[in-house]
Amino acid sequence: MAKKSTSKDRIATGSLAEITNQAITDTIRTNFMPYAMYVIRDRAIPEIDGFKPSHRKLLYTMYKMGLLTGNRTKSANVVGQTMKLNPHGDAAIYETMVRLTRGNEALLHPFIDSKGSFGKQYSRDMAYAAARYTEVKLDSFCTELFRGIDKNAVDMVDNYDATMKEPLLLPTTFPNVLISPNLGIAVGMTSNICSFNLAEICDGTIQLLRKPDTSIDKMMDIIKAPDFSGGGYLLYDRDKMREIFQTGHGSFTLRSRWNYDKKDNCIDIVQIPYSTSIELIMNRIADLVKDGKLKEITDFRDEIDLSGFKLTLDLRRGVDPEKLMAKLFKLTPLEDNFSCNFNVLIDGTPRQMGVIEILKEWILFRMGCVKRELSFELRKKQDKLHLLIGLGKILLDIDKAIRIVRETEQEADVVPNLMAGFGIDEIQAEYIAEIKLRNLNREYIINRIKEIEDLQKDIAELSDKIGDDIKVKEHIAAELRDIKKKYSKPRQTQLIYADEIVEVEEEPVESYAVRVYLTRDGYFKKITPQSLRGNVEQKLKEGDTILLEQDAQNSDELLFFSDRAQCYKAKLDDFDQLKASQLGDFVPVKLNFDEGERVVGMAVLSEYRDDAFMIFLFENGKGVRVPVSSYSTKTNRRKLTAAYSDASPIVAAFYQSEPKPVLLVNESNRAIAVPAELIPVKTTRSSAGVQLINLKKTGKLVHAEIDFETKIANPQKYVKNKIPATPVLLEEYDIEKQQLRFE
Q1: Rg for the chain (alpha carbons), in Å?
Q2: I want to staple 104 with a disulfide (CB 3.0 to 4.6 A). Which of 118, 357, 398, 678 is the partner?
Q3: Which CATH class is domain 608-743?
Q4: Secondary structure of 50-90 as H, E, C letters
Q5: Within the chain, which residues score under 70 in pLDDT?
Q6: The pTM is what?
Q7: Is 644 a catalytic residue?
Q8: CATH number among 3.40.50.300, 2.102.10.10, 3.90.199.10, 3.30.300.130, domain 51-171
Q9: Which is catalytic among the residues 35, 38, 133, 512?
Q10: What's the CA gap between 87 and 159, in Å, rounded?
């Protein structure tokens, strides 16, 4: 019986791949980077036509199937045909199709006319039917996607197995990139593009075609704000909207639309923010009712039917619906934020652009498409003119042409003999030789060559148009005006301005003792003393440590400071009570931090006192104290920019109601302890502070800590009474204790 080979045998015989030493940077460069670039360029990020490759392949397949004008066909047929261009599986193709359909209601202007169940954008649980049951065809709106595609308007490339051609981009006659919402998650970057109103985008693009230097304020008067298929309200903040128009990055708030039914004493939610779902809202309401925070509601239910969306809340007698909705807007996703990140591929390179920049790039793209289309028509007319000029030459002697053909003994000599007899080229001679005998008469030839004058006129006009950018732009503007006339719709998402929002007095927050914890990785816990009994150890994420631990009252306010010089304000009551065995709320998600932003410090306040301070310490060794009263605002603002100086990276941020010394440690494990009174007070939040610790040219502050006396031996050794001070080397046992804390 043969002996089975072992792994050692295979290694010995060299049957396994040879193991070699390779730097991790080389591995990433050769293996991971090509994958990352593929995901960015060929999967996740939309291009200037507003489509990802999966969208483009699907729609082009349907176009080639004749579904722009024909009857609907089973979705399974389309999925199968699309796999000739997109080999990533039928399930992925069908999911892509679902979102583009009229039935799913995800788009303001759906690309696919559908029949059957395709789920709903506002529900994650309403599943779509299988592809064998549903039917689809292209919506008439898609005419604007493919206009000119058969006239060389865009480049055509091989599909994955080089058996057929597909368009590199679609020659959209309108800026679809800002009309269709698009979310893409690539490697190391994302794209989240909101939709805008078609009529407003057309008007804004026409304005840019006429005046490329149009100011951003003028453009904001034309393109007012995003518009979503789900409707609802958008809380309009012109400064926030300007940031999105300028940079392509920012956020805005969406709010549900509701009606109060006095007869049945219930609230009907009829539209919700595009960024949430009915299940998220209902789950949150259920949690609030369960926790006793929403006693005004006796029942709630999903009443979605064929007439559309409806979420009904039954109220207790005497409940004020305005006050209840104000409360729900704060506690549930009935009011939600939409974060914009306008990342678009331009010539294969991802670029984050504002609205105006995207429109300018689209205009350049569309001008290229129009010129290619006009050039195609020009060549066709030039070819036809060339043939008719040759035909005109035989009009002078038709009998001669007939005689040449009749007297030629071999068929192959007909074309050369006609060329010699009339002084025409091969193409013209071939055309004349193919004319039917019945058409070799004076009337037919005269009627045909009458077109020469019109062709010459058209050729001159086309040549002039192709060479004149102003005329090409007017051509694009005319198309946009036509599209607006045919397909524009009234705004679905209505705008609410700050002075239109009715502020409802908040009910007093219940005040009781709690203990709060903030970890280095940004997790926050609020725990009552009763829950802490017998639970000394706090559950933390692996590698995480507690940054701040403090007693507080549930009615206190919180200030969270991020590493991007921003302050996020919240009420302690906004956070749920937790147990020591739970990780806690992740603050950047809870408070909607910007992407990649992290927490560096926190303050728990019962009031904004002038004699209490935030201490900010920076990598360049500087520090500053800012009174917490500087963060008090008249309105209920949730985010403050320029919360501290961004001249140097932040190392730490501490709140002190009473002065305590601060330990500063540089990269060489040298330290000083500075009494808080020596750190200057600046009422300007963006003050860069003064030098506290002397650093070498390449040195930097790496750690700062208060309440450090129990962690090092002989803390007085490091205390300095003048600044800037030269640091002292931490003793070995001090370093070990410090490492347990911050390394």
Answers
A1: 35
A2: 118
A3: mainly beta
A4: CCCHHHHHHHHHHHHCCCCCCCCEEHHHHHHHHCCCCCCCH
A5: 1-20, 502-507, 534-536, 635-636, 732-743
A6: 0.69
A7: no
A8: 3.90.199.10
A9: 133
A10: 10
